[in-house]
Protein 1
Amino acid sequence: MPSGTTVKRLMERPTSHPVAEFFSALTDGTTYSPTRNAYAFFGFLWGLPIPFFSIGIDLWATGHAPSLRILLEHPIHWFFLLHPVFFAVLFGAMGSVRRRKERHIQKLIVTLREHVHELASGPWRSGEDPSRLAESRLECHQVYGGEESDRYKRTRRR
C-alpha cells in the first residue's frame, strides 16, 4: 500500500451511488443463482403469497371455481404471477450488493490490521523502553482475537 494512504482515506465511503450499485449487481451472475445467493431464494419465497392471494381473493369474490379462465378474464393476474420472479431478482441484487460491501469491509480490516502492526513494530525513538515493542505486539495480537496478518508474521520473525 502506498505510504501516502491514510486511514481516513481508507474509511471513506465508496463513491458509487446506491442505485448504481444495485443496477451493477444485476449484471453479476450470482445475483440470479438461488444456490449461491440465498437472498434470491428468499425473495422468491417472499413473492409466492402474492399470486395465491390475488387469485384466491378474486375467485372468492366472484364465486368462480378455480380454473385457468380467470387468467384470461383478468390479465392483471399475469403480473401477480410474476411477483416471485421479481422479488427473487430484487432480493438477489440486494444480496449481491451486501456481499460486495462485506468483501470491501474485510479488505479494509486486513489493511487496518497491517497498519497497526506496522506502527507496533515501527522504529522506536532512542531512550524508549524496547520491551514496549513486545507489549504492543502482544496487545495487537490480543485485540484481533489471535489472528495474525502476513505482514505481522514477517515482522515477528525478525
Note: The chain has a mean pLDDT of 77.
Protein 2
Amino acid sequence: MLGDDGFELGLMQAPHWTSSAYHNQLLIRFIAWGPNALILKLFGTHLCSFFLPTVAMSASFSALGYAYLRRIGYAPGAALAAGLFIASVPFEILLGTLRANDLIVAWCMAIALLTWLWPTRHRLAAGLLCGVWLWLAFYVKLWAYYVLPGMIVVALWQWKDPGLRRAALGFAISTAALHGVASIFWALKLGHAFPFLTYMPATYPAPRHTLADLFQQYPRMILEGSPFGTTLFGVLPWIVLITMTIKLVQHVWGNRTPAWDKTDLWLAAWTLSFFVFLNFWTSHFRLDQYYSPARIFRYLAPLSFPLALIAAKNLIDISHAWRDDRWTRRVMAILWVGLFSVNLVQARQATQPGRDYRQATRQALAFIQNRPSTPRVITDYWQGTFFHNVYLKQALPGISVESSPAYLSATNCEAWIQTHQSAWPKETLLITGLSDYTHYGCTTCGMRLSQFNAPLDAIWTLGAELGSLPYGPSQEPARIWIKQ
C-alpha cells in the first residue's frame, strides 16, 4: 500500500552489509526493517510475516494505554474503556493495515513516553530507558527528537522535583552514550560521525511562495482527512480540544476537577512539540532556504497514541467529576458508546481505499491461480515486486513475473508494452489499472489504460475485470488481459 514497501522488503530478505551499503539511508535506519527481517528469517516470506511486527505493535497501543492508566490509579473498568477507545481510533486502525515504518517510530516513542511518565521510585532508570527508546525511534525517523523541546520546557517548569532531575540525568546519560558509540561506529565505517546529516531521505527546497500552503497540509490531514476524501484521525482531534476545554471550565467554575494534572501537561507538551516542529522546522539541517520532505499522512503517526490517550483520559476525568449524578452518568455512558461507534464507522471509511485495493489484488491472484499453465504475468514495477517475492513465490513458483522499469509514466509503459509484447509467450497475462500503490502513489505512472494514447493491441483479450478503484483520479477498473 505504501511506496517504501518494495524497497524495504529487499532489505528484510537480504540486507547487504557491504561498505557501499552503508551509504543507503534505508539500511542505516535498521530499526525500520530489523523486526521484519527477524520474522521473515524465522517464518519465511509471505504476507503474514511481512505484516506481523507492525500489526503486533499497532495492536499493543490499547494495552499500553490500559496499563498506564491502571498504574496511575484509574479503576479497571475505566482503564478498559480507555483501552477500547484507543483501539478504535481510525488512524491507529488505518496505520495497522499498512506496513509503515512510521508505526515502528510511533511505537518506540509511545514506550519512551510511558517509560518517562511511569510512576516509580527508580526515576534514574526510567530516564535511562526513555533515552534508549527515543534513540531507537531516532533510527527510524530523525524527527523522533522533535518532542525534546516540549520535554525541556515542562522539565524546567517542574525542575524542583528531585525525581524529575534524576530522570533527566538518566536520559542524558543513555542518549549521550548511545549516540557517542554510534558516531564512532559510523566514523569508522563511513568517515562520517553523523551520516544522517549526509545521507538523508528525500527532502526538497520549498519556494517561499508555497510555504503558506505547505504549512496547512498537516493540519488539514488531522482535521479533515486524506486526499481521497476519507478521514484519517476522525473526531479524535475535536474530542481532545473539547474535553481539554471542559476540564478547564469544570475547574474554574465548578471546582470539580484539577484543570490539567501532570500527565495532561506532559502529554500535551509531547504532542504539541512534535507537531509544531514536524510542521514548521526545516528538515535538511541547512538554513539557506526551507527544506521539507513530501507531506505524507503516515508521518503523523507519533501523534495518534498520545492524542488518543489524552482524549480517553479526559473522558474518564469528566465522567468521574459527575459520578454522583445518576442522569449524567447515563449520558456519559451513552457518549462513550457513541464515540466508540463513531470511531469504528470512521475507521471503516479510512481503510476503504486499502480494502478496495486488496480486494482487486486478491481477485487477480485467484484468476492467476486458476490458470496454473500461465507462462508469464506482466505488471508495473511496484506491483511486480510483491507478485514475484510474496504472492506467487510459493503458490505458483513456475510463473514468471515481469515488470516495467521503475517510475515509468503511463505513456512510457504503453511504449514499453508495445516494444516487448511480441516476445511474450501466448497466454501471458497483463494486469492494468492496479498500478503503483494506494496512498500518495504516482497517479500518472504504471499500467493505466485511461492514460494510454491508444487501446491495447488486438492480441490482448479481456480475461477479467476486477472491480473499480474509486480513490484514484482516473477511477478505472483493474483488469487482466490475456495474450492470444
Note: The chain has a mean pLDDT of 87.
Protein 3
Amino acid sequence: MGLVTLLTAAAWLTPGCNAVEEKNRQADTAADLVLKLLAAEKTDSLYENYTTEGFRQANSEETVRKLAKALNLYLGEPESHRLLKYSLKLANGAAAGEYVYKVQWAKADGTLTLKLLWQNGECRIQTLDVQSAALQGGRNATSRPVNNGKTIHI
C-alpha cells in the first residue's frame, strides 16, 4: 500500500516538476541571450523581441543601449555564468520568476538578476539588474542613480 501511494504521488508531482524544469531551462536560455546581446550591443533585438510591454513602457531602447555600453566599458565580455538562486510561481497556466546568476565578465565578476514573465508560452524580461563592484561612480550610463554606486538596474 505504501508503494502504491508513493507511485501515485510521484505521478501527480511529475507534471509540476517538468514545468519547473522547463521554465528553468527557458530562464537559462534567456540569461545566455541577454548576456550575448548586451555584449554585442544588439540592444534593438533584445528590446523588441524579448521584453514585456511593461519593460518597454518603463525603459527606452536608448536606456538599454546605454546599459550595454556601460557593461562593456566597465565589465567587458561575459565569460561564464551559473545560476545562484531562483524563485518561480506557477498558477493557472501563468508563470513568473526571478533568477539570479553569478557572472564572470572579462574585467570583473558580478550578478545578473532577471525577473521573467511567461506570456503565451514565451519567456519575456520584466526587469534586469546587474551588480558588480567594478561599476563605479554615483550614476550609470543611463543617468539614473546607481544603488551604492555598484548596480545598474532597468
Note: Helices lie at 2-39, 43-50, 53-58, 61-74.
Protein 4
Amino acid sequence: MSEQEYSPPSQQELDQLTGEIAALIKYQRRHYMVNKTLYIALISFSIIGSGIIALAGFADQGIIAAILGVAVGISVGLQDAFAYSEKAEFKAIIVTAAINLQTDVKFKIKSREAFDRAIDQLKSLHLYAWQNIPRGQGIEAAATLKLEMSNPTQSTPGTLPETR
C-alpha cells in the first residue's frame, strides 16, 4: 500500500472536497427556490382565481368566470404535472444532507479513510438526488386535463371538471 493511503488528506484535498459540496448545495438551493416559487405562485393564483370566479358568478359575468375557470384548471394541472412542492421539499432535504456532510468534512476528517468515506457519501448524495427527485405526473397529467376540459358533459356549466 502506498504512503498516501495512510496519510491524512492534505488541506488542498479537503478544500477541493468542500468546494464540491458547496457547489452541490448552491445548485440544489437554486432549484429549491425555483420550485418553491413556482409552487407558491400556482397555489396563490388558484386561490385568488377561485375567489374571483365566485365574485364573477355573483356579478353575472359568466365569460370572466369561464376564462378564469380554465386558467385555474390549468394551474391545478401544472401542480399535478410537475410536483413543484414535492421537488422543493426534496431539494431542501438534499441541501440539509450536503450541509451536514460539509460540516463533517470541516471538523471530522482526520484520516484518509474518513476522507474516502466522505467522497463516497458525496457521490451517493449526487446519485440519490438524481434518481429520486419527485417526477410528478408529467405529460400524463396534461393529457388528463385536456380530456377533462374537452368533455363538458362531465361538469356543470360554469364550473371546472373535478381534478384528482
Note: The first helix runs from residue 3 to 6.
